[in-house]
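LAB NOTEBOOK - FOLDING QUEUE
OPERATOR: T.R.
BATCH SIZE: 2
PURPOSE: Compare the predicted structure-token outputs for two unrelated chains run back to back under identical settings.
PRIORITY: normal
REVIEWER: second-year student, initials M.K.

ITEM 1
FIELD SEQUENCE / FIELD STRUCTURE:
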Amino acid sequence: MMTPRESSLLTHLLLLLTLILPLTLSLLHPPHPPPVHVPTLVPHTPTPLSRSRFSAQTQLDFTTHCNFSCFHRGEQDEQLSEKLAFETLYADGSRTLTTVDVEGEDEFEADAHFFAHPSPRREPRVKPRHKRVRRQIYGADGRFNIQGNNFLMDYPFSTAVRISTGCTGVLVSQQHVLTAAHCVHDGKDYVKGARKLRVGFLIPPSINGTKASLTSAKKPLVRWVRVKRTRVPKGWIQGPQEVSMDFDYALLELRWPHRRPFMRLSVAPSSDDLAGNRIHFSGFDSDRPGELVYRFCPVEEESSDLIYQHCDARPGASGSGVYGRVWDNSLERWERKVIGIFSGHQWLEIDGESRDYNVAVRITPLKFAQICYWVHGNRIDCVQD
């Protein structure tokens, strides 16, 4: 029988293999995807809004439904300028609405058309009808608890942060955190916890000469930082419940910059252009309190706005930064980049069959332009991926 130390070493070894092996295989045949055109958002002068009531309750177990038409619709079919407008919530409770114009919209319609009408091989496979049971753990639980200073504070795990409403976020700049919109807003009003929203940074317990086997059992501490500004797309606020998952993302601006490494954003490529066809994310799942939980899995399906997968997850993981190894043409190497935000669970109804997936919102060229503008505050730094 293995000792706790041997068990911990074995877990860490398996984790290293899952991180290194897919990259090694992908390096044998690196793709050369064409450059992605990013449209330009032109913001108008913000308009003051009434103060939020903060009357909503946080819904960590977020579930939606989608049918054939919602799966196949493309971004070009939307009223883009209206949905890409955004609300800004300030720390004092005041709000503004910023409307936008979109320049260069026509140049990316071909890419949107590809995902809006996937080829037959990307069609969801028809599975036998089953009892409708919410599944967020598929088969054997494939999640890893990230423990110990060497892993917990190492990139990319160190980019995962806690949100005070019970969700997860990912560091995307020295002062910004990307998370799920439903963690701060229910589509009608801001949640009660958004009034004094905070972001939690993990601080591993000090060793102080303690044996490694005992140290690994200690829970990390959390240092909380207040949020200065919260931004949510209008597509989430006004969207009907069954399709609003497409805009389930929000950006939090911290009151003070942090000093930790952050993860760069990227327009989500086709799953064929991801190393190993795999996505990864780390979050604070509710069934493992105080633990950072990492998982990875292949992409099962993809639409114009969503990434469908069976990565094991529980409530609390919402808002995790979904990343993959993306080929960077300018650097000529593979880079870990955030390509989506873990949202929750979706039932996909096609041809009378019901299939269940865990779902991430994919960062499209338009969403990249919007989030990039939120981060940088100008258009010059957001003209290309």
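ITEM 2
FIELD SEQUENCE / FIELD STRUCTURE:
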Amino acid sequence: MLGPWLHGWRRLQGRRCLFWATRLMAEALATLLRPRYPDLLVSSPALPLPVGSCSPESEPLERFGRRFPLAPGRCLEEYAAFYVGGSEASTDLDLDPDLSRLLLGWAPGQPFFTCCPDTGRTQDEGVRAGRLRARRHYLVERARDARVVGLLAGTLGVAQHREALAHLRNLAQAAGKRSYVLALGRPTPPKLANFPEMDIFVLLACPLGALAPQPSGGFFRPVLAPCELEAACNPAWPPLGLAPHLTHYSDLLPGSPFHVPLPSPDSELWDTPDVSLITGELRPPPAWKPSNDPGCLALTSRPQLELAESSPAASFLSSRSWQGLQPRLGQTLATGAVSGRRGIAIAYDDEGGS
């Protein structure tokens, strides 16, 4: 298996490389590759570490749900990538969330190759990475067009999940969207189909808490990552071609080097014209802007207005052709009870035999 794989990487000899594999395979491959690639990194899943196992100075870099033992002064964007894993039968990236996260977040200018252990065949993943980035751009556009957002609480045991929920709700409110928090366990298409009022869903989970393998388009509404909602609702977020793909929600919170605060209420970024690339219509500016001015809480008199229902669920129900059984309370005359028909539907007692 290693013969054709190493042959294809002769042109990159001497460059910095990094690859993923299981522990036993990683040790064997690292022994064979280090003579050719002196600067070689072997990543590992970002599982919880024992308390005090490593000092803050030697703590490895954690990205994409994995840990990278980078040397001081080195940057992950300087490395090419090997990925050993997967199967010949799984051609859809939706069935391999680990590889999908890496392709989305890896530097576009660096080579990324995969090797299938079943066949030993290597493949350049530049084309598939481009398709994944294009699909991510489409999901961000869907998030910008959405009016109602469902926040899926996929984890209740990871640190800062409450702060992340509050941050996502503040993002949706700042962009003029309504948000609802749903705790459904593992998201599946039948579960999410019970909430047709939602335009999109945002899964709040750890980097390794991937969705169950589902075919493309299996969900009734798209399921996004927190960083995609950030890109859609925060006008100060960098453009999609320059913004990093973050897999952990803690990277979006204050204190992280990737945190981008919301612009001030009087910023021109809120009034920048924006056109939907899906519908072709002009998006109106958000009706609500974040403000820290205490004067906005003061009560002011306003003219008497008629009561109006502003709930998105009620608006969605009123637009449906069938809204359920009508109770018609007080409109049906009361009558005495009478004896009904006996038997089964295929042959009642009062029906003649056929």
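REVIEWER COMMENT (ITEM 2): The two ends are 73 Å apart (CA to CA).
FOLLOW-UP: none requested
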